[in-house]
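ok trying again, last paste got cut off:
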Amino acid sequence: MSNESTQANSLLPANIAALAAYSSAKSEKLSGTTWLNANESPYAKTIQLSVEDLNRYPDPQPQLVIDRYAAYAELESENVLMTRGADEGIELLVRTYCESAKDSIALFLPTYGMYKVTADTHNVAINALTQALLLNGSVDEIVDAVGSSKLVFICNPNNPTGSLTPLDKVTAIATALADKALVIVDEAYIEFCPEQSATKLINQFSNVVVLRTLSKAFALAGLRTGFTLAQAATLAPIRKVIAPYPVSGVVASIAAQAIAPDAITSMRRQVIILNALKAKLIQWLSESPAVLKILTGEGNFVTLKLADKNYFKIALEQGLVMRAFTLYGENDWLRISIGSEQELKQVKIWLDGLALPTASAISAQQEVS
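nice, full thing came through this time. structure:
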């Protein structure tokens, strides 16, 4: 390590020096031709764009986008804060509501990794609970386990398991934690099961916050646009903390088009198609001897346990890129995003190939006979 690097590292706070950065699907630098690893939509959008006013600072919270998203979420505009992806919403909540080296956040593992990374960045402790507790435990057991944690993150549907916490249970948890903690419901995948949204709780509970994104069903992962939804009083301190110009004019223009009424209708049609393709994929997986277990759940992905982790390498050799996971202490799990029909056919080809006897197995059988 160079002298300059040593000097720079000596300036780092201990929590940052020890930080393990979040490894996103795209950070793995894999190569392939069929990409089903990042829960992206297979549908590309056509956007009308003008860039004539880039010499001016943008509206910090573009009113047309805010109004349209409020209408979509059946809320008031004062309940909506636009952010750079839902990830910025996570960061703002931790930075605003948690005191460094004092507070903790509760999360239910396995779940989305950015909750932990964000807390570690701000020197906020992790109260690591389990999905089993969230799904099967009583509300009293959950609240006891949450303890004094300031924020409680519920990814719903959960990534990467797809499990869904019923809305009545979220309601009961929020009721029990009133004046004690914020219950943050991350609804990145809620468009695939919209009837389960917690947005309807916002008017009832000042401690309920909902995170949303345009990256999944809205097919704008490259735009990095999200929304934090809550009562106005809950958002007020976050508005003090957020950067002065968090949303570029170009992003605002694209987002406004993406959540126009006709675009929302188109998104919902696409969700119907993707949910049907997911059902077909689950059928293929259930019929394959290469798959030991399937976590069906909700969302535009399926997570499964492979009979042999080397099957993932075979997929990569075929140009098929999916997301390998270590879950429950085992490194033979795989998450498959729901792509187009043509993309999923590549998964079927891979699965069918795994069901065939290998050349070495055939050779061994011939020697025996």
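cool. The CA atoms of residues 257 and 263 lie 7 Å apart. The longest strand covers residues 330-337.
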